[in-house]
Specification:
The protein contains 3 helices and 30 strands. It is mainly beta.
């Protein structure tokens, strides 16, 4: 850890104490996000997915994007509070794979199977070439290749930090085939078919896979643990259940989706969050009663500016903080919102500048200081919370040096912005 990082942590701890605790600090940060950094990746095509590493607690500072035939890993806390490129991968044709466009990404917890003495983080990427590549961040290369799908792989999901199921990965291909993999062994453990599946998510405990469909329905399949040390996990077709939310006492309006579900996220505490292409979102709590899973509706809201036009081709992927307290999601015009997962209350709203179009994906750091969104042809916007003292210092420095005035923007139309047009992870001073 360098001096800048140490000072950032010290200042943050002091502010947390001053504001009355971590929860108050996070909410304060969300209400004061400003656009500070803009990066344009060199492939000049849409970035289809973005994800923070919430799978491995030791590497929470890493985030990854996939767009064109590129996958890029960034350090969100380089030198304390900057953004820098860690790994860049281009999915070119080799003797082992055909290469091509990438559209899905997820993190794997490698703590129980990596050979590196100081640990490693693994990234799974997939797309049009039907293969799933596992990239070692330490080695900066593909170390495992999962082959078996016959169609493009459209979604990936892995088990969060776990000592028993951390090697498991679930994938969904365009033809509705769902595969359960043992990543480090490059082995497909089982395969099932769900023809109208549109997205998937693995439960926090690693014992179930949730499947959203093009007709707005939600299903679950059990992941069966081996009965002995020589057995393997399997995905059970016979365990298929359709899940329907039961309304709570304060529920208002619909309690189920009527359009295609384009994203599912499993949150701590047995909660499931789902979103459909029309912007309708639900969070529910799952429970098992006599071997049947039931959902109890927790909250529901509608994301403004979302349209069913274009269907799943214009999907806007959402994400949450590691504890599942906040959900961030974008719309079709480039706006990003942050909501409380339990109450559905809107906590933040930020806007882009000069670039419009659907927010393909967005992510929120664990302390809520950074919100990162991707839209347009390769643009990544990072909204940041800067304490008042830091903002004042920056403004004084600009006046003393006589620098040219920057364009200012945030949800209310003010704030600092740095613009860049760089390489594959290219960027400004924030991206080395």
């Amino acid at each position: 850890m360098n001096l800048n990082a140490e000072l950032l942590i010290q200042n943050r701890q002091e502010e947390v104490k001053k504001l009355g605790g971590e929860a108050a600090y996070r909410l304060h940060a969300l209400k004061n996000l400003k656009l500070k950094t803009v990066i344009k990746e060199s492939h000049s095509s849409p970035i289809h997915a973005l994800t923070f590493n919430h799978t491995s607690p030791s590497y929470y500072n890493l985030l990854a994007t996939v767009g064109g035939d590129n996958a890029t890993v960034y350090n969100d806390e380089h030198m304390g509070d900057y953004l820098s490129v860690v790994v860049h991968f281009q999915n070119v044709k080799t003797n082992y794979a055909n290469g091509g466009q990438l559209s899905s990404v997820c993190w794997l917890d490698a703590s129980t199977w990596t050979n590196h003495p100081h640990g490693d983080a693994y990234l799974a990427v997939s797309g049009a070439d039907t293969n799933i590549s596992l990239i070692s961040i330490v080695e900066a290369r593909v170390t495992h290749l999962l082959k078996g799908h016959k169609n493009a792989v459209v979604d990936l999901s892995a088990v969060p930090f776990s000592s028993t199921t951390s090697s498991l990965l679930v994938s969904l291909s365009k033809d509705g085939e769902i595969r359960l993999w043992d990543g480090p062994k490059e082995s497909c453990l089982s395969c099932i078919q769900h023809n109208d599946a549109s997205c998937i998510a693995v439960s926090q405990s690693g014992d179930a896979v949730y499947v959203g469909t093009t007709r707005g329905r939600l299903f679950s399949y059990a992941i069966i643990a081996p009965s002995s040390s020589v057995g393997t996990h399997t995905l059970s077709q016979d365990s298929k259940q359709e899940l329907k939310s039961t309304p709570s006492s304060n529920s208002i309006g619909a309690v189920h989706h009527t359009e295609a579900i384009d994203c599912i996220r499993c949150l701590p505490g047995g909660r499931i969050a789902t979103k459909s292409t029309d912007g309708r979102m639900f969070t529910s709590t799952s429970s098992i009663e006599e071997k049947n899973t039931t959902l109890s509706l927790v909250s529901t809201w509608k994301v403004p500016g979302c349209s069913t036009y274009g269907g799943l081709n214009n999907r806007c992927l959402f994400s949450s903080t590691p504890d599942g307290a906040y959900i961030c999601v974008g719309n079709g015009q480039g706006d990003c919102y942050v909501y409380s997962a339990d109450s559905g209350e809107r906590c933040a709203h930020v806007l882009p500048i000069k670039v419009t179009g659907p927010v393909k994906a967005c992510g929120l750091s664990s302390d809520c200081r950074h919100l990162v969104a991707v839209l347009g042809n390769g643009f990544m916007f990072r909204y940041e919370y800067l304490p008042a003292a830091v903002v004042d210092d920056d403004e004084e420095g600009e006046e003393e040096e006589g620098e040219e005035e920057n364009t200012n923007v945030n949800s209310h139309g003010d704030g600092d912005q740095e613009m860049a047009d760089g390489g594959a992870g290219g960027g400004d001073d924030d991206a080395a």
